[in-house]
Structure formats: structure tokens, C-alpha cells
Amino acid sequence: MFRYVHTNIIARDYTKLIQFYKEVLHCKSIGESRDLKGKWLDELTGIQEAHIVGEHLCLPGYGEDHPTLEIFSYDSMYDREEALINTYGIAHLAFEVDDVEVTLKEILKAGGGQVGGVVTADYPDKQAVFVYAKDPEGNIIELQSWKVRELNN
Predict the structure, then answer these.
(1) What is the mean pLDDT of residues 67-87?
(2) Where's the VOC domain (predicted)?
């Protein structure tokens, strides 16, 4: 077997960030909360007395056999520099939404931010609306909405 399982975000405040992803981006609790510690975790992370708490959330649009968004906090964490769209590593999480501008307003109202402008891009048979936003902890989120073009005869 080979399949994608989850993406992890380490949060300053996992409870607030979990609530944001549930309320604004329609992720769902699936009963997979975690309170992890022990020798195995110390060996896995390379951190002495590591302790992680958080939850796995079902991503919107998926059923029982789904990848999750894992939002955890460690007891001891380091600050990082601001996430930028053009830095190495994982750049963003993408969500397809019904209305990019409405969802962006919800993100801003919930304490998130906006990276660039809302844009429309034309494809041969579709039109897309995109924007990069940030969750309340600065992680970048891409919002996208797609419409099929009507063909003129």
C-alpha cells in the first residue's frame, strides 16, 4: 500500500487554530485527538521529554478513507520567521471553495490575513479565481474557485 495520509501544522495555540480550520475552512473533527509522549516520541523527534497535543481533522470533500490535517502543539517550541509564498519548503494548503471573496472575508474576520490580490485566470475550458491568504498563525492558504466556460456555437 502507498497513499497520502496527512499534513501537519505545528501551532502556537492548537485549540484556536483547530477552531479556525473547522469554522472557516469546513474541516471536521473525527475523534482523533492526540496527547502523545514517551520514549518512542523522544526517539522519533530527537527531543527529550517531547509532549505533543492536538487533533486530526477531516479535510472538506472527503469521506471515511481520507487524508487529514493534523494540528499539534509541542510543550516547547521555537519561533520561526514569517511564512512567505516564495520560500523553500511547503508553501501553502489549497482549498477549493464556492466563492473565494466570501471565504477570504471569513478568514480576515477570524484573524487571518491576505498575501496578494484576488485574481481571475483563464484556462481553455475553465475560469478560476485565486487568492493567497493566511490563517491566524501565518500559515499560507490558497483559495480557489473554478467555473466551466460555456461554449459558444
Answers:
(1) 89
(2) 3-146
Alpha helices in the chain (DSSP H): 14-23, 39-45, 100-109
Q: Residue 110 is placed in which grid cell?
A: 477570524
- C-alpha–C-alpha distance, residues 128 and 114, integer Å: 18
- In the chain the domains, ranked by start, together with CATH numbers, are 6-74 (no CATH), 93-148 (3.10.180.10)
CA-to-CA dists, residue 81 to 12, 109, 146, angstroms = 13, 24, 33
pLDDT tens across 87-117, in order? 888 899 999 999 999 999 999 999 999 999 9
Q: Is 54 exposed, middle or buried (0-12, 13-18, 19+ CB in 10 A)?
A: buried
Radius of gyration of the chain from its Cα atoms, rounded to whole angstroms: 18
Q: Using CA atoms, how far apart are residues 33 and 104, in angstroms rounded to an integer? A: 28
Whether residue 30 contacts residue 58, with contact meaning beta carbons closer than 8 Å, is answered with yes
Match 511547503 to its residue by C-alpha cell: 90
Torsion of CA 34, 23, 17, 105, to 10 degrees: 160
